[in-house]
Amino acid sequence: MKRPKHPEHFHLLPYVARWLVLASLVAILAGSASALFLLALERATALREAHRWLIWGLPLAGFVVGWVYLKLGRDVEAGNNLLIDEVHDPKKVVPLRMAPLILVSTVISHLFGASVGREGTAVQMGGALADQLTHLFKLRPEDRRVLLMAGISAGFSSVFGTPLAGAIFGLEVLVIGRLRYDALLPCFTAAIVADQVTAAWGVHHTHYAAGMLPAIGPWPLAAVVLAAVVFGLAGMLFADLTHAGQAFMKRRIAYAPLRPLAGGIVIAAVVWFADGWRYAGLGIPTIVEAFQHPLPPWDFMAKLLLTVGSLASGFKGGEVTPLFFIGATLGNALALVLHLPVGWLAALGFVAVFAGAANTPLACTLMAMELFGANIGVYAGLACVVSYLCSGHTGIYRSQRVGHAKHRHIPEGLKLGEVPAFRKGEAPQPPVKSD
């Protein structure tokens, strides 16, 4: 066998230097965009709370956003699913207009009271901005895939202040049951630097306190498993209802801008007449409360239904922070049933419902440790894995691929959106383009 002319490390150093530079550029762009977005979101939320009559502007705001996307954003409306598809099957550079469109539309959604999140916005901005470097540096398709993953990691990390979770999220969200280790360095670099860039812009993230953790023992571990089954089912219910709601709205209302108009009327009426202000927007004050004292047991279901209605109608934002709300309040309710500390089970629900809905148990375990301390790691890991298994082959991202099925045979490479057709014995159909 012919020996290589140069030792392996001779080629490794340029590779490491190249990706450190590229990932840092992605992080600077994504971190700065997230900082601008979070500051705008903070202002919009404060304005809505000070002038609650703005909720009645939600239908008109939804119509305007829907019309703008119909005219300018049809090729980027798939959002996170578009990024996942481009990583798996690169076709063309994600249009730069994805970033300003999703930023402005999400801020508008929050200003007028839609129950949506913010992770989708940050991830889409990170991915779209990262992909602009493809032409600039004439990257190969394989390198472009990695760069998009770094953009996803940077966006997630910077919006939540969780660099480790952000790095793993960019690796884990693409395929169920498989990670790409060749993207470890770019994703970790982008996530860490993006978090630092956002902090340098003066952005601060909400602090959550899980309180005292019980010692590891038979009953706490068994109780976590029981609670995690419920968390996984909640994540599955959220994903299934969201997809069913979106399909229903498309069948009933053909003209896209009329969907958020109709949905906005219903959401505004519910919030105004049913005193549902705690469920509008992100709902962070209620999430903080969930760690402190018992809350009404219906809080999680009210937030779930209002978020499903908002997303199904076409309002922009994301699902993750509403899933944090649903998980924390569901854990809060289960704590009374299982006779466990409220803050501790709220913390587990916070990450485990998201783990089940997004099929990202590793990222969510790391998120728990970053937000609540390393001591929660054993419980959080158990809760996230059980929730992930119990949510089945469904999820909020329909373009996720099946790498290794969770507990039954599903063909490798199948999209989650194609799994129902496979179960019925039908040939999977190509995804329908959004209008």
UniProtKB/TrEMBL annotation:
This protein's UniProt keywords: Membrane, Transmembrane, Transmembrane helix
UniProt protein name: Voltage-gated chloride channel family protein
InterPro entries: Cl-channel_core (IPR014743), ClC (IPR001807), ClC-type_chloride_channel (IPR050368)
Pfam families the record matches: Voltage_CLC
Organism of this sequence: Roseateles agri
Main location: membrane
Cellular compartments annotated: Membrane
Transmembrane segments: 20-41, 53-70, 146-171, 216-239, 260-280, 300-318, 330-356, 376-397
Membrane topology (UniProt): Multi-pass membrane protein
